[in-house]
Amino acid sequence: METPIRTAAGFSGVAPPEHWPPSRSTPRPERLERALDVLPGVGVTVAQRLAKLGLGSVGDLLRHAPFRYEPAAPELEIAELFGEEEAAISGVVRSVRKRRARRLTIVTARVEDESGHIDAVWFNQEWLADKLQPGTHVRLRGQRRRDDFVVKSYDLGETAQTADFAPVYPASEDVTTKRLRAFVESALPYADDVRDLLPAVLRARLELPIARDALVAIHRPLSEQDTERGRRRLAFDELLELQLALALARRDREDAKAPELGAPGELIERYRGALPFAFTEHQERAIAELDHDLKRSTPMQRLLQGDVGSGKTVVALYALLRAVEHGYRGALMAPTETLAEQHFLTIDPICVALGVRAALLTSHAKAGVGDAQIVVGTHALIQEGAELDDLGVAVVDEQHRFGVEQRKALSEGRSPHVLHMTATPIPRTLALTLYGDLSVSEIAKPPANRKPIVTRWIPQERSSEAYTRLRRLLEEGRQAYVVCPVIEESETRQAKAAEVEAERLRHGELRGFRVGCLHGRLKPADRRSLMAQFKARELDVLVATTVIEVGVDVPNATVMIVQEADRFGLAQLHQLRGRVGRGGEQSYCLLVSRAKDELTDSARARLEAMVASTDGFELAERDLEIRGEGELLGTRQSGAFGLRFASLRGDRDLLELARREAEALAGGEGLLQDEVARRATLVAA
Ligand code: ADP
Ligand code: MG
């Protein structure tokens, strides 16, 4: 452990390495909002590509977390370079030349150190020739090939030192990790504009660096230790923000009043009667827990957990109807408009049957919301339409920043009962650490009449077998999905490809069947009517992009073909598969991919896992194993909470700490006291 030392910026557990540029004295946080085109090399096109990675501002780029680092290569003298093992060398350029060989441009620099010299070689980086003037200090990482040293990464100048330990960022096909490195590097001076909200005393106690130094450490890594300290600092900030929102919401809730909804009445009785099935034991337990909460004036805060297809939505509708029967409104909030539409399509027919007015609130359609008893929309839209002041119950789907939502929903001491719904598997112990007094209801088993989905993995050259199976089921009156391969470049191209594929299938494997095509470029109204048609069995097959991933609910659709299944992530495949197996009939999921021996190890492992298990929880665990510890940050669990740096598993200690600090803070005690107001506005923003 290092002794805390005094730095220019105050107490910090860690002394910044000497080469770090000195911090400017006055941060200007508004500079972090600047669009990325203020950076060199970022024009309109690049900015659009970055936007697809979720990067819109300089601050976003600073918070773009590397998911791993290239391992350090051994540091060797030139005379020690034998074999082809990767190594790092340093030296001075003596001469440089450039030549063409077929379609390659080759830049060669003679590099010398005290032990000898070697020709370092770069391919297709013509412009480097001008930078590698004789006398230039270089640090290179690469491999010896015969008499040359083929360079993989490099750094120039006397203080060059980052070439052998480089961050690897979540990247895309058109913005490589290497370009991201360059962009992040040019954004790094803006780290000076990050305001550090952790008081020095607390920072010293937790041995965390200041925020700016933490950012420099994760993007310009010197050692794993150094990087890890930086990451922990940023992780702590995230967890603190999350916990603070929760703690403040808890505090507000102590005074808040929600309507007391008594015991279930006549409407609920009719609802039970209108459903074509009886609730399962697990659903009944969740309902009993809900009823207990709804009777009281303390606003309910309950998490309803259950795998895809386990039957959460009907329970959620139960809660909404409980508000309606007492003259209050219910709201169902989804993360996206597509999902909101799908929820609406599921619940509207039941509401119609019960004589309850439900309305869909989208950016295109706001009609009918005024006198609706149940409103379905995105989180954002429903909060905008804040005149929902007679809200009795709010159901929040797949939105994990609970505290934040809760605070937004509160108004002047009045608060709806809130039911959070999630299919993201969070172990109960972790849920308790995270949410403290949030109660958890779990639907651990799907309806009993469910037959496990039969999953098969079929190589491309035998894909005709998959279509044969599919046609047979269609002839028996079932319906089907065909999921098109992922195309990352753009939603438009993805949509195009899906249309083309649908047309191909209409004339090929699916000739004679009614084929619709669902993708993200359809107008909301068209998408809705397409879904309605499919539900009404006016279409046999939906050829779709991953927009069907969540929420689509057509029990008669019992077979799904996923094309190029090796290109999907495990969590995504599981979500997709959840679209079938929703009724009593045997369902099938047919995963078509390239031949086994053409696949990467992890693609093979993913597909094997899908065949072996239908349990979302088990698959989430397996997903972690396949990705490896190093990629923990990218997991669905952490991602779902908007966490970039913190790992819900690896950072349990930080989570506890953040929780304690947040409690103290919300209670008006502790070290962070003066920050309460500022934090609170920060969190609500
Ligand atoms: P989730 O929202 O958890 O993914 P849903 O609520 O959409 O799951 O339910 C999946 C399917 O199972 C739906 O078609 C729903 O009508 C059906 N279902 C729900 N509960 C039962 C039940 N108790 N018995 C039979 N089918 C059910
Ligand atoms: Mg559902």
What's the SSE blueprint?
Elements: E1 5-7, E2 10-12, H1 44-52, H2 58-62, E3 68-69, E4 86-101, E5 104-113, E6 116-123, H3 128-131, E7 137-145, E8 148-156, E9 167-168, H4 177-187, H5 200-206, H6 211-219, H7 224-255, H8 266-274, H9 281-294, E10 301-306, H10 312-324, E11 329-334, H11 337-354, E12 358-361, E13 374-378, H12 379-384, E14 391-397, H13 402-409, E15 417-422, H14 428-435, E16 439-443, E17 454-459, H15 463-475, E18 479-483, H16 491-507, E19 515-518, H17 524-535, E20 541-544, E21 557-562, H18 570-577, E22 588-593, H19 601-612, H20 616-627, H21 636-640, H22 652-666, H23 676-684
Parallel strand pairs: 6-8, 10-15, 10-16, 11-13, 11-14, 12-13, 14-15, 17-22, 18-20, 18-21, 19-20, 21-22
Antiparallel strand pairs: 1-2, 3-9, 4-5, 4-7, 5-6, 7-8
Helix pairs in contact: 6-7, 7-13, 7-22, 7-23, 9-10, 11-17, 19-20
The chain binds adenosine-5'-diphosphate and magnesium ion.
Q: Identify the CATH architecture of the domain at 266-443.
A: 3-Layer(aba) Sandwich
Q: Can you count the beta strands?
A: 22
N- and C-termini, Cα separation: 37 Å
Shape: globular
Mean pLDDT: 82
Structural class: alpha/beta
Measured by DSSP, the beta-strand proportion falls in 15-25%
Kindly provide the name of the CATH class of the domain at 266-443. Alpha Beta
Describe this protein with a few key phrases.
22 strands, binds magnesium ion, Rossmann fold, binds adenosine-5'-diphosphate, seven-stranded parallel β-sheet, 23 helices, 685 residues
